[in-house]
Design brief:
120 residues; 7-stranded mixed sheet
């Protein structure tokens, strides 16, 4: 059974930082690109960034504040978020896909999400 479990969300003040983690099990992690998405209330799920299976390629919606990394030995992907803004408030999801993709429908497996709330 494939599982993706996000953690690290919480309440942070504007300008602060958070690092989200996504621990996976039940899949060959190094065979998958990993993506991060977010969804705010009343809005569609949107692409945050993705990283290739070996970490050699990344793609971001906003590369100035967000950084994705992965540890294939620990089957875990990370999302470092800096200079957070209230508009970053959302549920953040990780997802697995054989290749880099920006559309949610391309991803095979999803986590349950972790809430990030940025106060002004």
């Amino acid at each position: 059974q494939v599982q993706l479990v996000e953690s690290g969300g919480g309440l942070v003040q504007a300008g602060g930082s958070l690092t989200l983690s996504c621990a996976t099990s039940g899949l060959t992690f190094s065979n998958y690109a990993m993506g991060w998405f977010r969804q705010a209330p009343g809005k569609e799920r949107e692409f945050v960034g993705a990283i290739s299976w070996n970490g050699s390629r990344t793609h971001y919606a906003d590369s100035t504040r967000f950084t994705i990394s992965r540890d294939n030995a620990k089957n875990t992907v990370f999302l470092r978020m800096n200079s957070l803004k209230p508009e970053d408030t959302a549920v953040y999801y990780c997802a697995a896909n054989p290749g880099l993709a920006v559309t949610p429908s391309a991803y095979y497996y999803w986590g349950q999400g972790t809430q990030v709330t940025v106060s002004s």
